[in-house]
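Action item from last meeting closed. Structure (132 res):
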């Protein structure tokens, strides 16, 4: 999927575009600025940044190769980002999907590192020989 296709999809979710319509040059430019701004802010969040580590910005025709769940999260969250520019209210369903899709990415990217230290005096004195 390209950046333009995601922008079109987000504008459809808002009801700004109907099926088969394409955005004007201005709408495409505004959508791209919103998309790049949103992804740059996501890059700052550790649990969202896994697939955005090398992200610097997209152009409209760029194919976007992202990990599982990112396409949906971007579509719905971009709709939320663009809504105020078009004087549109975001439906409860769009908002819910946007929120859940971000939560799923964060949950998927969440890792816990546990370091365990054991006092050597508590360990039994044994000599292990794996060849024995």
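Sequence:
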């Amino acid at each position: 999927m390209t950046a333009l296709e995601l922008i079109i999809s987000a504008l459809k979710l808002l009801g700004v575009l109907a099926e088969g319509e394409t955005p004007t040059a201005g709408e495409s430019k505004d959508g791209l600025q919103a998309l790049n701004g949103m992804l740059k802010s996501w890059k700052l969040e550790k649990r969202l940044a896994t697939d955005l580590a090398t992200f610097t910005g997209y152009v409209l025709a760029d194919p976007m190769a992202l990990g599982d769940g990112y396409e949906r999260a971007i579509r719905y969250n971009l709709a939320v980002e663009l809504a105020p520019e078009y004087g549109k209210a975001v439906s409860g369903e769009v908002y819910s999907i946007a929120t859940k899709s971000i939560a799923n990415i964060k949950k998927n990217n969440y890792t816990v590192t546990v370091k365990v230290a054991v006092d050597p005096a508590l360990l039994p004195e044994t000599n292990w020989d794996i060849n024995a």
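Note appended to the action item: Residues 7 and 31 are 6 Å apart (CA to CA).
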